[in-house]
Amino acid sequence: MNAFDVPGRGNDWLAGMINDDRANARFQVDRTVFTGEDVLAIERERIFGQCWLYLAHTSEVLTPGSYVSRDVAGRPLLLTRDKEGELHVFYNTCTHRGAKVCRERRGNGGGFVCPYHAWAFNVKGELVNMPGRDALPPEANDNGELDLMRVEQFDVFKGFIFVCFSKKTEPLVDYLAGAGDYLAYVADQGPNGMEIIGGAQEYSADANWKMLTENSVDGYHGAPTHSTYFDYLRDRDGGPKKVREVGTVGWVKNLGNGHAVSESIGALPWGRPYARWVPGWGEKSRAEVEALEKEIMNRLGPERGKVVAQGDRNMIIFPNLVINDIMAVTVRTYYPVAPGRMNINSWTLAPTGESEASRDRRMRNFVEFLGPAGFATPDDVEMLESAQKGYAAGGWNDCSRGMRTNNPSKTEELQLRTFWRRWRQVMAARDKSELQGP
Q: What pTM does this model have?
């Protein structure tokens, strides 16, 4: 049975919602994919149940006994580090009667005690105690079936921890494809590694989750939607007079497996703490920023160093991980609550051990643009929610820009088509060969 064969709907009913007409340079998406309950039900199974999903960063569980509890695709998970330094990922549910064994978001301790019946587990997930143990046979847990349930797969790449709820999905390094190179650019910024700063920014939007994937690498909306931010930069730093040209600077790439990046090198008007100075930071900061750039160049070499220090990148890792490596580094995930609503989580990533002054510049950059109350996020949420309301009228979204362009710019839509082709492939288990093209 085909993935799209739903009783009463006929064969391939969902496949027809993507019109990929390469001969005529037309790419359209039926707006029903943003509004249908039946579409979301298949996504939960085929996409969120089978793809690699971001869980956390290793900096969040540095010390033995540390843990993080977090929901991923509606599943409660528990990430721990044991005294030998090994990482573990379990389902945060007691194997007795199902209650969460950990109700804190993060902490450090020797283990977890279920609040329902006081079953106790260590950070390796092993059942170590229970009231009335003699009520069960001595061999009841010899095979470990009463220990915490381990997630089907988890792996770490450059400090980024991913999970997968299917044992059949390809290894993480293969799944990441070209996106791995860009995660490495992020990891290379700090000579002592990278770390998550503080907790998560959490908010919701009344829009379909796939719209945030599109928006995150869509350079076409930047100038009209975020004009206030560019006006602010121009007034502060003497930035570009023709703001609408900003989106044309740079390029986009298909990184394989539905991942894509929108990037440029040393061309955009904001500053990067590691390491592109702007006048708004003041002359006193210039020497430190230039020294940071020199350190990166010496450590990585001039070619890679220029990409790491001067590059600006917005990347999507299919299906729902966004890395904004621009004026600050943001890690963002989002999950559907309903076809027209999603919950969003965002974390700030920074070089470990950077100076207080550099951290201050970074956080100011972050809250100015990327934070939930910054210039960008409220603008984006408003536009996504407006579009979601517009989908009630039906019709098609057009993602055809640049289909006849060999070197697409950020204002064209190769990156959107990359996502949608992978989405169709995963939903229908189609062959990868159809993913290539403009």
A: 0.92
Angle at 375 between CA 240 and CA 106, to 5 degrees: 130
Distance CA 120, CA 102 (A): 11
- Sign of the four-CA dihedral 100, 104, 107, 111: negative
Are residues 208 and 271 part of one domain? yes
Q: Which domain holds residue 242?
A: 192-435
* Residue at 335 is within a domain: yes
pLDDT in tens, 274-321: 989 999 899 999 999 999 999 999 999 999 999 999 999 999 999 999
What is the DSSP track for 379-430? HHHHHHHHHHHHGGG--EEE--TTTT-SS--TTS-HHHHHHHHHHHHHHHT-
Q: Which of 305, 318, 329 is nearest to 212 (CA)?
A: 318
What's the CA gap between 59 and 42, in Å, rounded? 34
> For residue 305, what is the domain's CATH number?
3.90.380.10
In the sheet that holds 87-91, the strands lie side by side as 87-91, 75-81, 66-72, 106-108
